[in-house]
Amino acid sequence: MWPRSYRAGLPNTRSSLDEESACLCIPEARAWHEPDRLMTLIGDLREILGPDRVLSEPLERYLYGTDGGMARGEVIVVVLPETAGEVSDVVKAAKRHASPIVARGAGTGLAGGAAPAVPSVVVSLTNMKTIEIDLGNRTAWVGPGVINLDLSKLTRSSGFHFAPDPSSQSACTIGGNVANNSGGPHCLAEGTTTSHVLAVEIVTADGEVVLLGGPAPDPIGLDLRSVVVGSEGLLGIITRTLVKLTPNPLDVRTILAGFATMEDAVATSSGIVARGVVPAALEIMDQKMTRAVENFVGAGFPIDAAAILLAEVAGHPAAVEAEARLVEQVANENHVTSLRVAADEVERAKLWLGRKSAFGAVAQLAPDYYLHDTVVPRTQLVATMQKIYEIAERHGVLMLNVFHAGDGNLHPLVAFDASVEGQLDIVHAAMEEVARVCIEAGGALSGEHGIGLEKRDLMPLLYSEADLDAQARLREAFDPDGLFNPQKVLPAGSRCADLGRPIPAGAWL
Amino acid sequence: MTIAAAFAPFVGLAVADSGLPECDLMAAPQTIDELEQILDLASEHQLKAVIWGGGTHQGIGGRIDPDLVIATSQLNRLIDWQPEDFTVTVEAGMRVSDLEEMLADRGQMAVLPELPGAATIGGVMAAGISGWRRARYGPTRDRVLEVDLVTGDGRRVRAGGRVVKNVTGFDLPRLAVGSYGSLGVIAQACLKLWPEPSTKVTVSVADGDRALATAYRPTAVVEADGVAKVYLGGTEAEVDGQVESLDGTVVPGWFWTPAPTGAVGWSLRVPPALIRSAIERLPSGWRYQAGLGVGEIKAASVDADGAAELRAWAESRGGALVIVSGPVGLYSDMDPWGTPPPGLDIQRELIRRFDPCRVVNPGRLPGGI
């Protein structure tokens, strides 16, 4: 079977790509059909990495052309460096050949961040898997190819874990987490990836290896580390990260509550937060989703409930006790229909397996799915969810919902069959409306998946010309030629030459 | 039109505030729109401007002889407070103490520095200053959800959003923290709030290191001149349970001690595991306050004797020794920051694009940029 993304085709954004290529900073980027040019580039890369770590066969290039999302791009060649020095040499070679570069980890991203928008050299960092743990400082230096869950497994016996836990944590890499500022259910209490990054080592667009940040608090100078986190591969290639390790909770309790309406579930979640309790996680699923999950993994979710709330409280045993009582109390006030506390670690793991298998479970319903990611202020959740269901109904699409209710991060998912003509367009139209509704509610375009290609052209919904120009200036300061992951995040024309003052002659610098 | 005439509309009453440096041109914008006009004019005339919030962190960084002082004291409005969302949006000139006092009425806190004095939200952000509670709640940069900057050439730019989780675009809000206005004057910010714990205590203990190892995720452990205080917060049962294991003197509430003062003020930053070693290396006569588990030491001394050796050691361990306050002459004898960090070229390129005429705090950052 072909991968889903092949069947689903390309997102709307694709149509605008071809027009834009004309104004790419790298003018020759599309001339890769000239065999000489391609062979010299491949030859140079083989000299750096040897023949085995340069992949140029059509199937290999095809496999690296996409991520977990729907976009597929053209790969010139794939390289598998193992050190920062090799990454640096690859960047210099690609630059010499005027080839754009797309860095990637496991490719679990959903916004097209790792799918080249123009033919590119793809730098896969999955071979860079070193881990150096420093328990004294509660930190670890990790290579970008380290799998998220592997770090937590490795530190578990010492009493620590890496807090960001995206649903894909058994496959996604920490380099990818850093590039996307990934979240996960447990970032409600612990913060997203950026709160756990003390330093990043990057290879710049000049091929220089630079360490940003460090093991001590408040590194001096502009905090470039903070802006590299979440920059979706546009500012540099991450070759090493110093991450914080978080102490494992002394006690944890996971509560599963069923409700007769989505409103009650959301009111419970918001009510818990509003009373000053910050649980470890607050996740909601609607009935369509719980049924799909039950069928798929049998997590023990009540399938008769219109919505379920998965609440986890963790920390000091006394706090866990008090917070669990409060969760039950707020649930009762909001007409909870069923309530169960996971009796042991096995049951708890099963509940989380159910939550984290949600997207996989959708495969039973339709061959393709489109997973959205938006954020609204928590007080806007009820009204926004209502509007989202209306949008689904109006467009006649099968929508399922599972979301991080505690931080207002929504994940409407539409299951569909892309081989039915016109279906994908309907899905895109519905999802764009969802984005608009969330922004009108005071929200943002993405809470954790990123902008990539998928939402690039929606950025003007949220930001003014001056705002986007500032973002483009920031990018330009790191990568003036647009070598890294071109045409992502910022829509064409973001950089406005007529905004602001030119740098006066003879000014400083 | 003379420069003075051009700035006349922006000279407000607030500039009569105490503590402002002597300067021919003093402006106190009443709106962000006025701040844009002021910076546009400053760029046109290529003036050097110092931004004045509460004046509490002006001793940090390279010295500037300004042509213009911009006071943010009039930009102190509450824009939007959503208690149930745990977010608040304020103008940058609001004092930290006023904000925290307002939030406390609803049992919320912004977790900014505990004894802020006259410090403003914008000042604390621009200087990248965090409180001791960062041990539990993270540094100030983790609080900033949205920022409105007015760039050096007078353009208002917004980034981030008023939601607690957001990856829409590059993280300019976090980059603005510690930027000393070099990318733009922070005009307004949305902050993430935390619930105030129902029970708070301060426990004085003899052995801070032991307390840090014993307590489960304490709010802060601060040692000053040999005595440590452990700050705990949470439910009553949780706090009581922790107190028992600590073996110290308990006082209800959080009581913070002012940082030591002296002719020279310092901020020593080391990896947390080296803090004991750092305390032992302080030159004799230095008084200190150390955040155990954090790696920051606030110190004061009569002179800079021994500082160069201490700085060399801290830098060799990935840290820094920064001058926080001192006599003017010290800044020419000793770099206020120490060895500039890597990536200085990128920093320069960034600043060029946000403040092309280099108006705001030129030369304040490490490397004299």
Describe it for me?
The complex is a heterodimer of chains A (509) and B (369). Chain A has 509 residues and is α+β, with helices and mostly antiparallel strands. Chain A has three domains: 4-124, Uridine Diphospho-n-acetylenolpyruvylglucosamine Reductase, domain 2; 131-247, 2-Layer Sandwich (Uridine Diphospho-n-acetylenolpyruvylglucosamine Reductase, domain 3), CATH 3.30.465; 251-440, Vanillyl-alcohol Oxidase, Chain A, domain 3 (3-Layer(aba) Sandwich), CATH 3.40.462. Chain A has 17 helices and 20 strands. In chain A, the strands form five sheets. In chain A, strands 15-12-14-13-18-20-16 form a seven-stranded antiparallel sheet, sandwiched between helices. In chain A, strands 5-6-10-8-9 form a five-stranded antiparallel sheet. Chain A has a four-stranded mixed sheet with strand order 1-2-4-3. In chain A, a hairpin with a 4-residue loop joins strand 5 and strand 6 (139-142). In chain A, helix 3 packs antiparallel against helix 5, helix 10 (262-274) crosses helix 12 (317-333) and helix 15 (381-395) runs antiparallel to helix 16. Chain A is globular, with a radius of gyration of 23 Å. Chain A starts with a helix and ends in a 31-residue tail after the last helix. Chain B has 369 residues and is an alpha+beta fold. In chain B, strands 14-11-13-12-16-17-15-18 form an eight-stranded antiparallel sheet. A five-stranded antiparallel sheet of chain B has the order 4-5-9-7-8. Chain B has a three-stranded parallel sheet with strand order 1-3-2, with no helix packed on it. In chain B, a hairpin with a 4-residue loop joins strand 16 and strand 17 (296-301). Chain B is globular. In chain B, 58% of the residues are buried. The model of chain B has no long low-confidence stretch (mean pLDDT 95). At the A-B interface, strand 9, helix 9, helix 10, helix 12 and helix 17 of A face strand 8, helix 6, strand 10, helix 8 and helix 12 of B.
